[in-house]
Structures are given as C-alpha cells and as structure tokens.
Amino acid sequence: MDDFVAKPLDFRGPQHASKMAPASPGSESTGESLAEDTQASDLAQIRAELTQISTRMLSKADTGSLVQEPRVVLREELAGLRSDLTALEQRVEEMETTAHGCEEQHRATEVAVTRQGNMPLTLRRQVEDLKNRSRRNNIRVRGLPETGTEPLQATLIDLFRQLLGVQARDVICCISTCGLGDMAPMRLPEAAPNRNDPPHRRGGSEGPEE
C-alpha cells in the first residue's frame, strides 16, 4: 500500500536528504513516476484553468469597444445639449427683441393716452373761448346817451352808415383776426336790393367796409 502512495517532495536540500535512510530502488522509481504523473496532471489542470481565464478575459479590441461605446453616447448627448442650448439662446433673443418692441409700443401708447387725456381739457377750453367770443360785444360805443327821441338801435345803424359810408345789409361777415392793412383792399360783393327796403336804402351805393 505504501508503494502506491505518492511520497511528498522534500525541498530541504541535499543536507537533509543525506541524513535520511536510502530507500529501496524499486520503491524509489515507483514514487518518482507517481510524482511526475501528479505534477503533469497538476500542470495540465493549471493550463486548462489559465486557458479558461484567458478566454474569459477581454481582449484589447473588446476593451476598446467597451470604452468607445460610452464615449459615443456621451458625444451624442453633448451634441443634443448643445443643440438645445442653441435653440434656447435663439428663443431668448427673439423674446428680447419682442420685449423691446413691446416696450417701445407701450411708451408710444402712454404718450397717446396722455395726449388724449389732455385733449378733453383743451377742447373744453376752446369751447368756452368760442362761447365767450360769441357772446362778447364786438363793438362798444361810448359817449352816446341812451335816452333820446329815436330808438337806440336805429340811431346806431344810422351812425354806422354815416361813418362807414355803406348801407346796412343782411350779410354778416365774421372776421376773427384781421388788421386794418388787410381790410383796406377788401370789398364786399353787392347785394341784391330788397323790395321791402325803403327807396333811400335800395338806391344807396356801398363803399369799402372796414
């Protein structure tokens, strides 16, 4: 039984080996053959395991592909982010342009509203001025007594006729602003005689009106 059991290898060197008793030639050859077979089987097993490990390990190409795939994905995502940022920048610029135009339009609207708010006051003042002008006496006569034998209106008409040298007419000319130099060359058109007027009024000649 001892011949079939492999003896352990002695790594203690020749000094220790010399101290041991020499074995028989037959048992020594049998032990060496068993040891060699065991070592060969162990080496074969180790080689098989190394082969399996090498097959399971990634090659350089596989490692490069694994590293390259995340890079490609990151590049695509970065490109998408850049495009999104560019689109957002364009939208912000458009919004700023629109806001600037709205601001200018708002200012113009404020100016227009302010003008329209002041317009009623201006119109009211103009209407009041026109009312005052329409009610205002255009001619004031001083020194003429109101007590007399003739009616005051007839006396004034005769006075104006003598001063102006024209007959009374049914046409009323309204002049808002006119100087004496502008009134000199003006001449009113002759009116047709009225049948109800007395003879001295129908035959009178009209002169320049001041």
Name the shape in a single word. rod-shaped
What is the N-to-C order of secondary-structure elements (H for helix, E for strand)? HHHHHH
**Poorly predicted runs of 5 or more residues:** 1-6, 13-21, 174-189, 203-210
The strand count comes to 0
The share of residues in extended strands comes to under 5%
Supply Rg: 67 Å
> What percent of the residues sit in helical stretches (DSSP H or I)?
55-70%
Mean pLDDT score: 70
Structural class: mainly alpha
Region (Disordered): 1-38, 188-210
Coiled coil: 71-105
Biased composition (Polar residues): 26-38
Keywords: Coiled coil
Q: What does the model show?
A:
Helices cover 64% and strands 0% of the residues. The protein contains six helices and no strands.
